[in-house]
Structure formats: structure tokens, C-alpha cells
Specification:
9 helices; single chain; alpha/beta; eight-stranded mixed β-sheet
């Protein structure tokens, strides 16, 4: 009789002692749970994982994990994550962001992280609003969303992260809904295992400034078409997307960026000689 071996870690092994300060009902609670469950399933020791973030509600996640973490400046999380992965390719690097942090001030880093294809996972909690700074429209906000800070809406075409990720060269593209913990956990596991730059957009409702997003629970649905490794087919699929298809959309075959790490210089006198006048 075969006895199923228990995984070496539990989700709780990846959680810190800090209590999240998100608003009650925030979708980021579920994202944190999905991330820790995924890490437990992957079985990677916490000390071999680095969680990097920028600024925003979602970017608090490193403090709530029991892994190595770095809470960086606004929009620069991908640059930090890429630098760390290139210097320490033995680490599992996960970068956490929000739609404002990742697609506005961090938009240029997003494009080039996809292009460089460094082997790391980028998770963006998209609530289509700046939640930490009291409800301004974000790059993904609908053009007609009416609020006290943008009466009548911005009238601007929203940023489409999945299209941008695919066009820029991301090797894995997916979308999930934070309330679907099982599906989100499964996709994060696959994203971490897939070589190269993996991008997962997670629709994560902001119940404080966007209470209308509670309806996402009934609006999200599995994509009608299976994932593809053909960029052209993936592009057609994403461009006709209603914004609520969830699951893996694209699995690329690009070779991940190769890192060449040389032995560090331990003797400071060697460095001093190089700068001698």
C-alpha cells in the first residue's frame, strides 16, 4: 500500500507573525493565502525565496511572509527583483505589485522585464484604483468610472497588462481572481515553475473605494480556449478578451535570460589597488 508523502512545508511556514493591515474584505488577503499555499506546494524552503515589492497596498506582502523580502521604492520592484535574480540565480524570486505601482510609474520597468525574460514571477494585484492614496483612478481604471476625484471618469483608454506583457516578450501570461484561491494557487505554482519571466494579473477587489468590484465574483469565468504557446493565437485571444477570463493564457518557449555569476572578491586590498591613483 502506497502512503502519500506529506509535503515538507505548510502554508503557515511562509507567513510572518505580522497581522495584515488591509481593509476588511480586501482581495489581497486571499492573494497572500494563495501565495503561501503555492510556496508550500512547491516545497522551496523559505530561506531560498525572496519576495520583492514596491509601494501600495499589495506591496505590503513581503512583510507578511517568512521569506527574505525587500520593500522597495515606487515602481522599481522589477529592477530590484531582476538584479537579485541575476546575482543569485539559486533563489526563487517573486515580485509583488499593484496596478498603480506596476503599470504607471513602473510601466517602463514592466516592458523591459518582459523583454529581458529573467527567470522570476511577477504578480500584480489589480483593483483598478489607487487604494492606498484614497481612490484616484489607476492606469487600468475604466474610462467612465465616476468618483469624487475624477467626476465623470477620466475618458482615457485603460492600460491592458496582458496585451503589453505578451507583446513585450513575457514567457508566461495568466489572469486569476483573488477569490478563487484554488485556481490562483494552481496558477502561481505553474508560473514559478515555468522558465523565464512569468506574469500573473490577479483581479483583487478594493471594497473600500470600488465596492462595485464585489461583482467580480460572478463576472470572472474560465477562458473558453485552452492556453497556447503561439503568440499570434494568444494575441487574438487576449485582444477579444472581456477582461474577466481567468486561467493561463500563454505559455511561451523562449529561453530564459542566462546569468553568469563570477566569484566575488573577498580581499578588499584588490579593490583598493584598482582605485589607486
Amino acid at each position: 500500500m502506497n502512503v502519500q508523502q506529506k509535503p515538507p512545508f505548510k502554508a503557515g511556514d511562509y507567513k510572518s507573525d505580522l497581522t495584515p493591515v488591509w481593509c476588511p474584505g480586501c482581495g489581497d488577503f486571499h492573494v497572500l493565502l494563495s501565495v503561501t499555499k503555492a510556496l508550500a506546494e512547491l516545497g522551496t524552503p523559505p530561506e531560498d525565496i525572496a519576495v520583492i515589492s514596491g509601494i501600495g497596498c499589495s506591496s505590503r506582502i513581503p512583510a507578511y511572509t517568512n521569506c527574505y523580502g525587500f520593500h522597495g521604492v515606487h515602481g522599481r520592484s522589477l529592477a530590484l527583483g531582476a538584479g537579485l535574480k541575476v546575482a543569485r540565480p539559486d533563489l526563487t524570486v517573486m515580485v509583488m505589485s499593484g496596478d498603480g505601482d506596476g503599470f504607471s510609474i513602473g510601466g517602463n520597468h514592466f516592458l523591459h522585464a518582459c523583454r529581458r525574460n529573467v527567470d522570476m514571477t511577477y504578480i500584480v494585484m489589480d483593483n483598478r484604483v489607487y487604494g492606498m492614496t484614497k481612490g484616484q483612478p489607476s492606469p487600468t481604471t475604466e474610462p467612465d468610472w465616476d468618483s469624487a476625484l475624477s467626476p465623470g471618469g477620466t475618458g482615457l483608454s485603460p492600460f491592458h497588462p496582458l496585451v503589453i506583457a505578451l507583446a513585450s516578450g513575457a514567457n508566461f501570461v495568466a489572469r486569476e481572481f483573488s477569490g478563487d484561491i484554488k485556481g490562483t494557487t494552481r496558477t502561481i505554482i505553474e508560473a514559478v515553475r515555468h522558465p523565464g519571466f512569468s506574469f500573473v494579473e490577479i483581479l483583487s477587489p478594493c471594497v473600500t473605494f470600488r465596492p462595485d468590484e464585489r461583482a467580480w465574483k460572478t463576472q470572472t469565468h474560465p477562458a473558453a480556449v485552452d492556453a497556447t504557446d503561439d503568440p499570434a493565437r494568444a494575441a487574438r485571444r487576449i485582444m477579444t478578451d472581456d477582461g474577466f477570463n481567468v486561467g493561463v493564457l500563454y505559455r511561451g518557449k523562449r529561453k530564459a535570460y542566462e546569468t553568469h555569476v563570477e566569484d566575488s572578491v573577498a580581499d578588499l586590498t584588490i579593490l583598493e589597488e584598482e582605485f589607486a591613483v
